[in-house]
């Protein structure tokens, strides 16, 4: 029997559409993904390997841009700032987040309200956060003056204009912005813990702090993981807040790689250096993701074994 | 979970309860303080600011800061306030949110209900793409926007935000649609519905929650963006975040007018704050979905 | 002409083969059951008939025309799913008429069809409710209504009752049977429940490991199983399998069975012995259903003395658990004649009904 399918003229078109439309629907996004994400990654890496300066060019220069980059003080200032900022930002957000989450998990009456209050900074633009904290930390009229008015006239808080301390001012504002979010993550994690384990431990006579230290916190490992990944990649990308709060200053004292990349790539006509900086930022994010990916893969494999 | 807190962990004495509440309220104060200072300062006069207490309430109550921020403060060379830039932000945020949400829903639908050889790979590439720092895209994108004549324009920002937003909306929608039984789509196909009518009549009507998450997440991200705005536009085409930064850091007159700065900051923050207060539930869901990624 | 003809059909997912050389032809108005354990490929086969899965090899024809490449829309079929798959955003009326709407049927005609179907299934009161406001049984009725509305040439059911509680399941089973009798439309019905299969089907295809093990009427499948798998799958309690030695030669063969004490020898009917002789093996597996292993009449020569381990009354019958040839077996007796646990009872085998399988291949040999 020949393929005697119902051959009313419209059917082949319909069938063709049925078959191809799902794939066609992905085409715009697929092309965008290939061009604007993976194409651009390739392009930026390529630019970092050329002599591009004011205008991009295709003269291959090997790793010369990276060599130049590694000889620039300002790059190392940016990297060290990022290290200081990143470590403090992640540590403080985790500490505050975990602490507040544990407190919130004690059957608090107004929990919904408190959570809303803790989380709202995340809805704000980082520029707004920068502007507000710039005002609060202002050495002459902000918190310092308030403390003076309280009678402690010797108090001095000049972090914003002190090149050695300005990066810590950035930490303060950044932690304010994100710690409520980390609280929410930990709270969700705490709610997911099997309560029968905790009951069993208490029946066995474990005290409350012990239950937290040896049962609850260890079982929050996955939350720690995703929170750290998230915070690290936020830290590496941080740009808006620093610009708004300190403008990178005083001098270069609060530069971070994102500012370096922007300034060299767009203001100073050093496209090759900007591209090299961007590439290193991506490598840093990838490095931060690596432990999670490995843990994830391992977890999957173990999961299959069981 | 309620049972746990009832007769499990939280058993301590009343003193401990007081301590817990005290600490929680202290934390609330810490989070609210900047908002309070921002609001009160915006209603003060310059005289009150330089002479008075940071935490004092405005007396008298002045709208000068707001007026100037909206219509006459200097943002760089021109002094027309933030209003023009506010509408700029509206002009690219709204279409970019709608576009990225629409494509995200469509992609999520295909990636879960019409899987084909290679669709998992596309999803994997997309997932990885969400982690790449935007700095990797800036230099090529600036070139491309120049080539197609969209540099320094609201249309250019619409394109950029739509493109990079789709990765997130696709992720959200995929994770939502995965939980919808495949049988629903099979039933629709047997009933004679095509690829599009299945989406239109069966999937879309049950997608409201996830579309809300996408819209709110995208709105917050795009409205608050600074990086793309500062890199791809200049002068007239700036979004409000860039204009605010210029306003605050333009000290042409030499005096810092903190009331204007704070009013400007509130104007910039207001749309996303309102969304957060009205639809905080979806905001939180977007955040956790974004955090867990897949 | 066959309503549905499945010829040499195979299916692979990636490189796992889930269906192997399936051949089924279905007559007009027939009720065909696909039964088998979970994962044996029933749903896959049903989806291939519906056009929801591609066909790797072979051909499926509906009403005489090949539908290998046809979309579900182009096949005159309707399907009822295990988890109902009702559109949650539509009320019952719109669920039922959706298929008609998609096929461009005018609104008035759709309304008439909904009324007719709702009446037939007695769901007229539910038409304006959303699926979430219905009970499991009501949902399944609506799902059936959705299939009925289209008046298809073939109905497909994929385990439609397995989500319902036991009582409702029995009720719906009867209703589906009545529905079939009324409509006289061909139906393919997938289930893993052998009782459903036996009660509903005109013919049953027993599937296992991607193959049709046997295709036949319920009686054929029950009395004349093609292999040990089918024999064990159909029937509850399951058939007893006793490995035993054959003695004597063709025309005069007996099997040795040992209960609690001595060995008993059971002479086999001559038709059986001839087939066993043709096969040649000395060790075979004898299959005896519990109802063919019953307490022997007094003084019967060929009885096996067995010690009863457990007595299990079920109401109409009482089952006795014991051992023959060191393998656990189940016998059946009348409740009034039930022994006590620990008693030794003489059991008789109805050798006319016993079946024999090869020890290794498990194929039926007699
Ligand atoms: N889309 C698929 N991809 C890969 N394997 C599948 C797919 N669908 C079903 N299978 C496999 O095919 C086999 C048969 O599945 P199915 O037809 O659903 O069984 P049944 O309905 O009899 O329980 C199972 O082993 C299942 O894991
Ligand atoms: Mg199945």
Automatic annotation (TrEMBL), chain A:
This is Sugar ABC transporter permease. Coiled coil: none annotated. The lineage of its organism: Bacteria, Pseudomonadati, Pseudomonadota, Gammaproteobacteria, Salinisphaerales. Belongs to the binding-protein-dependent transport system permease family. It is found in: Cell membrane. Residues 79-294 form the ABC transmembrane type-1 domain. InterPro entries: ABC_transporter_permease (IPR051393), MetI-like (IPR000515), MetI-like_sf (IPR035906). It is a multi-pass membrane protein. The keyword DNA-binding does not apply. Keywords: Cell membrane, Membrane, Transmembrane, Transmembrane helix, Transport. It holds the Pfam family BPD_transp_1. GO terms for cellular component: plasma membrane. The chain crosses the membrane at residues 24-46, 74-104, 116-136, 165-190, 211-236, 271-295. One of its GO terms (biological process) is transmembrane transport. It comes from Salinisphaera japonica YTM-1. The keyword Magnesium does not apply.
TrEMBL record, chain B:
InterPro entries: MetI-like, MetI-like_sf. Keywords: Membrane, Transmembrane, Transmembrane helix, Transport. It comes from the Bacteria. GO terms for cellular component: plasma membrane. It is found in: Cell membrane. It is a multi-pass membrane protein. Gene3D superfamilies: MetI-like. Its main location: membrane. The keyword Coiled coil does not apply. The keyword Transferase does not apply. One of its GO terms (biological process) is transmembrane transport. Residues 86-279 form the ABC transmembrane type-1 domain. The chain crosses the membrane at residues 18-39, 85-109, 121-142, 154-177, 198-220, 260-279. Belongs to the binding-protein-dependent transport system permease family. This is Sugar ABC transporter permease. It comes from Salinisphaera japonica YTM-1.
UniProtKB/TrEMBL annotation, chain C:
Keywords: ATP-binding, Nucleotide-binding, Transport. One of its GO terms (molecular function) is ATP hydrolysis activity. Residues 4-234 form the ABC transporter domain. InterPro entries: AAA+_ATPase, ABC_transporter-like_ATP-bd, ABC_transporter-like_CS, ABC_transpr_MalK-like, ABC_transpr_MalK/UgpC-like, Mo/tungstate-bd_C_term_dom, NA-bd_OB-fold, OB_MalK-like. Gene3D superfamilies: 2.40.50.100, Nucleic acid-binding proteins, P-loop containing nucleotide triphosphate hydrolases. One of its GO terms (biological process) is carbohydrate transport. SUPFAM superfamilies: MOP-like, P-loop containing nucleoside triphosphate hydrolases. It comes from the Bacteria. GO terms for cellular component: ATP-binding cassette (ABC) transporter complex, substrate-binding subunit-containing. NCBIfam families: PRK11650.1. This is Sugar ABC transporter ATPase. It comes from Salinisphaera japonica YTM-1.
């Amino acid at each position: 029997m020949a393929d005697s399918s119902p051959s009313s003229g419209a059917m082949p078109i319909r069938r063709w559409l049925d078959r191809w439309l799902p794939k066609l629907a992905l085409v715009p996004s697929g092309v965008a993904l290939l061009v604007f994400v993976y194409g651009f990654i390739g392009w930026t890496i390529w630019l970092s390997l050329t002599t591009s300066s004011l205008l991009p060019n295709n003269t291959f220069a090997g790793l010369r841009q990276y060599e130049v980059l590694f000889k620039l003080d300002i790059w190392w200032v940016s990297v060290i700032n990022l290290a200081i900022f990143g470590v403090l930002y992640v540590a403080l957000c985790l500490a505050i987040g975990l602490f507040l989450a544990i407190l919130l998990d004690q059957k608090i009456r107004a929990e919904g309200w408190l959570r809303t209050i803790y989380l709202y900074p995340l809805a704000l633009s980082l520029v707004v956060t920068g502007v507000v904290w710039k005002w609060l930390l202002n050495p002459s009229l902000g918190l310092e003056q308030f403390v003076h008015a309280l009678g402690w006239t010797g108090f001095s808080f000049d972090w914003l204009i002190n090149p050695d301390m300005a990066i810590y001012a950035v930490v303060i504002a950044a932690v304010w912005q994100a710690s409520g979010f980390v609280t929410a993550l930990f709270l969700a994690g705490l709610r997911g813990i099997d309560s029968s384990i905790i009951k069993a431990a208490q029946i066995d006579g474990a005290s409350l702090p012990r239950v937290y230290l040896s049962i609850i916190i260890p079982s929050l490992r996955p939350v720690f993981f995703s929170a750290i990944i998230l915070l690290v990649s936020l830290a590496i990308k941080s740009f808006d807040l620093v610009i708004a709060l300190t403008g990178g200053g005083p001098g270069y004292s609060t530069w971070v790689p994102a500012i370096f990349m922007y300034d060299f790539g767009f203001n100073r006509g050093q496209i090759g250096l900007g591209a090299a900086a961007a590439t290193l930022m991506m490598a840093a994010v990838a490095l931060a993701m690596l432990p999670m990916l490995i843990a994830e893969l391992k977890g999957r494999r173990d999961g299959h074994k069981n | 979970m309620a049972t746990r807190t009832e007769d499990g962990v939280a058993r301590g004495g009343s003193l401990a309860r007081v301590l817990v509440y005290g600490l929680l309220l202290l934390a609330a104060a810490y989070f609210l303080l900047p908002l309070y200072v921002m609001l009160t300062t915006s209603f003060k006069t310059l005289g009150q600011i330089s002479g008075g207490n940071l935490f004092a309430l405005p007396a008298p109550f002045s709208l000068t800061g707001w007026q100037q921020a909206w219509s006459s403060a200097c943002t760089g060379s021109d002094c027309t306030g933030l209003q023009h830039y506010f509408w700029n932000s509206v002009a690219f945020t709204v279409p970019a949110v709608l576009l990225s949400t629409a494509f995200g829903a469509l992609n999520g639908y295909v990636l879960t209900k019409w899987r084909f050889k290679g669709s998992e790979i596309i999803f994997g590439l997309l997932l990885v793409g969400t982690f790449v720092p935007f700095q990797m895209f800036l230099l090529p994108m600036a070139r491309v926007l120049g080539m197609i004549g969209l540099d320094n324009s609201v249309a250019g920002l619409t394109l950029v935000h739509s493109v990079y937003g789709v990765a997130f909306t696709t992720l959200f929608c995929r994770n939502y649609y995965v939980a919808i039984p495949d049988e629903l789509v099979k039933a629709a196909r047997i009933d004679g519905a095509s690829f599009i009518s299945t989406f239109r009549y069966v999937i879309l009507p049950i997608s409201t929650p996830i579309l809300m998450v996408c819209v709110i997440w995208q709105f917050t991200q795009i409205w608050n963006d600074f990086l793309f705005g500062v890199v791809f536009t200049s002068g007239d085409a700036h979004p409000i975040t860039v204009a605010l930064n210029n306003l605050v850091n333009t000290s042409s007159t030499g005096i810092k007018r903190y009331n204007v700065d704070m009013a400007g900051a509130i104007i910039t923050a207001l749309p996303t704050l309102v969304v957060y207060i009205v639809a905080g539930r979806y905001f939180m869901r977007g955040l956790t979905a974004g955090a867990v990624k897949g | 002409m066959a309503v549905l003809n499945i010829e040499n059909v195979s299916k692979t997912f990636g490189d796992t083969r889930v269906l192997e050389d399936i051949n089924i032809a279905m007559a007009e108005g027939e009720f065909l059951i696909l039964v088998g354990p979970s994962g044996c490929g029933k749903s896959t086969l049903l989806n291939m008939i519906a056009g929801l899965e591609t066909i790797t090899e072979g051909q499926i024809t509906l009403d005489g025309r090949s539908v290998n490449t046809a979309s579900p829309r182009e096949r005159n079929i309707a399907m009822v799913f295990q988890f109902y798959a009702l559109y949650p955003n539509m009320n019952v009326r719109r669920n039922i008429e959706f298929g008609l709407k998609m096929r461009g049927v005018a609104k008035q005609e759709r309304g008439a069809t909904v009324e007719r179907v709702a009446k037939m299934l007695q769901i007229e009161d539910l038409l304006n409710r959303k699926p979430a406001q219905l009970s499991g049984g009501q949902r399944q009725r609506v799902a059936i209504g959705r299939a009925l509305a289209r008046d298809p040439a073939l109905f497909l059911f994929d385990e439609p009752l397995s989500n319902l509680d036991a009582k409702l399941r029995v009720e719906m089973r009867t209703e589906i049977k009545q529905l079939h009798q009324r409509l006289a439309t061909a139906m393919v019905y997938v289930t893993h429940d052998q009782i459903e299969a036996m009660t509903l089907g005109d013919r049953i295809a027993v599937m296992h490991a991607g193959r049709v093990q046997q295709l036949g009427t319920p009686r054929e499948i029950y009395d004349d199983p093609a292999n040990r798998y089918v024999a064990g799958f159909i029937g509850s309690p399951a058939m007893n399998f006793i490995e035993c030695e054959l003695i004597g030669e063709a025309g005069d063969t007996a099997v040795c069975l040992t209960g609690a004490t001595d060995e008993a020898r059971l002479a086999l009917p001559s038709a059986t012995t001839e087939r066993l002789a043709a096969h040649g093996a000395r060790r075979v597996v004898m299959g005896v259903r519990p109802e063919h292993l019953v307490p022997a009449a007094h003084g019967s020569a060929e009885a096996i003395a067995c010690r009863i381990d457990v007595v299990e009354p079920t109401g109409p019958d009482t089952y006795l658990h014991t051992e023959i040839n060191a393998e656990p077996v189940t016998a059946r007796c009348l409740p009034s004649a039930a022994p006590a646990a620990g008693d030794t009872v003489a059991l008789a085998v109805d050798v006319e009904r016993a079946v024999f399988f090869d020890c290794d291949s498990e194929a039926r040999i007699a």
